[in-house]
Amino acid sequence: MPGMKTNHASRDSSNNAGDCCASGVVSAQNENKIKEICREFGNDRSRLMDMVRAIQSAIGYVPPEYYDLIAREAQTHRVEVQSVVSFYAFLSDRKKGTVIIRLCNDIIDRFKGADAVAAAFERELGISFGQTTDDGHFTLEWTACIGMSDQAPAALANDTVLTNLTPEKVPDIIRALRENPDPQSLVTECGDGNNAHELIRAMVNNNICKRDEVLLGEYNPGAGLKNALSKTPEEVIDEMKRSGLRGRGGAGFLAGLKWEFTRNAPGENKFVLCNADEGEPGTFKDRVLLTERADMMFEGMKIAAYAIGAETGIVYLRAEYAYLRPFLEDTLKKRRDAGLMGISVAGKEGFDFDIRIQMGAGAYVCGEESSLISSCEGTRGDPADRPPFPAIAGYKVSPTAVNNVETYCCAARIMDKGPEWFAAIGTEKSAGTKLLSISGDCERPGIYELPFGVKVSELLEMVGAPDAMAVQIGGPSGQMIDCSRFGRAISFEDLPTGGSIIIFGQDRDLLEVVDAFMEFFVDESCGYCVPCRVGNVLLRTRLQQIRDGKGVIEDLEYLTKLGKCTKRMSRCGLGQTSPNPILSTIENFRPVYNALLRRDQTGFQKSFNILHAIEDASELTGRRSVIFHA
């Protein structure tokens, strides 16, 4: 399977020259442009991510010749500029094409025909993935999940989303882009709902298949905030706690308790952060909420800000959803104009709060809250040691409440309808509904809002997957279950999930799926800690050995021990869950592994070739072995 990131690949070094002289001298025109961009962000080191993104947008890339200038303007060091540019997949220190086509190659897209689409792009452009055409117009790259698993194969042409691709569509796409290099010109028909909004205009479809009353039912904008502001912050937190709302990102920590910790933590400045960086393959629920329930999300953030005493909020928006940013910015502007953000929000004296959008740049690890905070601070998305937790020392070492899009939407509804209403939905330990992104081998992929407690078997009937062999609950970092476990329920106490449900039919090679998941984790590891950086590579290498028919029974014990060690010793949530594809399939699909294991009657491993092993010795001695010979 091709590599996920090809951040610095280029076919022609002449494309890298750009506006810089060969000697590395920065042109006066671009020097002024860089200074102007840095000033736009207040020459604030914590906005370094925004600076380099804006520079790349203006110039096409971020050449090393500019690092010293950027560092001086941002009042930081050259190495920090370099580390940011090299860390994120969507940033580059080399010139790329005017149009960068990033084709998604997660396992869902591959099963839907991404490889055939890739071959068509290569034929049409005369280049391979990771290369740029000689005329500098096109670059081909692979990328990980872009949140379009319900309409795969999908790709990004710059920031424009291309869905339901086929090899037959590729020649027309390239022909159109040669005539008009603006990828937005490819959107001749918009999707449903706000996808047709003038500030979005995307061919993306919401694919809402099942609505319930919390998130996708009738909604009275502003009612939740109005009710919250009629109470004290302590009363708001108490209602959140009584509702039983748990974080919808997967970990399931009580939202009210997190807000209480943040409010009570010492610190003059407090912050509210929204994690809109869903990068788990198979997850696309936040995409729909951002498109159709942006007001609800912002309202929930304001309620959280009032509860904890924050004046600043940040939405961390993944780069793959950049096409939604103009719409989200406009939504914020309208709220400011209506007096619902800024000074004295909704007329509440002393409650000042505003929100800015922080763009990501292609790094799955930034979905982990401490990595997200690092990225918001303008640095690499490296995870931080915990404790202290963000509620005590988060953004800018200040108390910070971090929740995801769905959690803030639920908070707005709770303050509107009341904690008892919310707590009565779902199960005793899992209150409310859950928004599920369902994809894979089923007739009706899409978004399903269902009360917690729904059984997997009920889900499969609902989505049209009567012959499912396996279901991946919670994306690659979750667990794969077999048909004997389809009676289990989606809930925090049974099968927790951040929202991703992937279905695999009877004809799928499950170890191909596991290998794809492990490749994703190997590629997306930030590399900070050895257990994750090395452990995942070793796990995948041994898995490939088994897939090649060279495995033995002892390999399963090795994988189990190494997987548990990687989980236990890794620094952040990525490494603590990355071995799950292997561990859960060894537990639930052991016969799949057993069928590939081999052992000679002599006891020798088939993977060991004695003639190959003594080849060097035979050459040195000038004779062949009298014991081992062909």
What would your notes on this structure say?
With 630 residues, the protein is of the alpha/beta class. The protein has 4 domains: 18-87, Arc Repressor Mutant, subunit A; 101-188, Glutaredoxin, CATH 3.40.30; 223-423, NADH-ubiquinone oxidoreductase 51kDa subunit (Rossmann fold); 511-594, NADH-ubiquinone oxidoreductase 51kDa subunit, iron-sulphur binding domain (de novo design (two linked rop proteins), Up-down Bundle), CATH 1.20.1440.230. It contains 26 helices and 14 strands. The strands form 3 sheets. A 6-stranded mixed beta sheet has the order 5-11-10-14-12-13. It has a 4-stranded mixed beta sheet with strand order 2-1-3-4, covered by helices on one side. A 4-stranded parallel beta sheet has the order 8-7-6-9, sandwiched between helices. The longest helix has 18 residues, at 530-547.
Can you describe this structure in just a few lines?
The chain has 630 residues and is α/β, with parallel strands linked by helices.
The CATH architecture of the largest domain can be named as: 3-Layer(aba) Sandwich
Rounded average pLDDT: 93
Quickly count the domains. 4
Calculate the terminal CA-CA distance, rounded to whole Å.
35 Å
The CATH homologous superfamily name of the largest domain equals: NADH-ubiquinone oxidoreductase 51kDa subunit
The biggest sheet amounts to: 6 strands, mixed
- List the total number of helices: 26
- What's the Cα radius of gyration? 26 Å
> Strands of the biggest beta sheet: in what spatial order?
5-11-10-14-12-13
| Overall SS class | alpha/beta
CATH class of the largest domain: Alpha Beta
Poorly predicted segments? 1-23
Total number of β-strand segments?
14
From the 3D structure, determine the CATH topology of the largest domain: Rossmann fold
Strand content: 5-15%
Overall geometric form: globular
Helix content: 25-40%
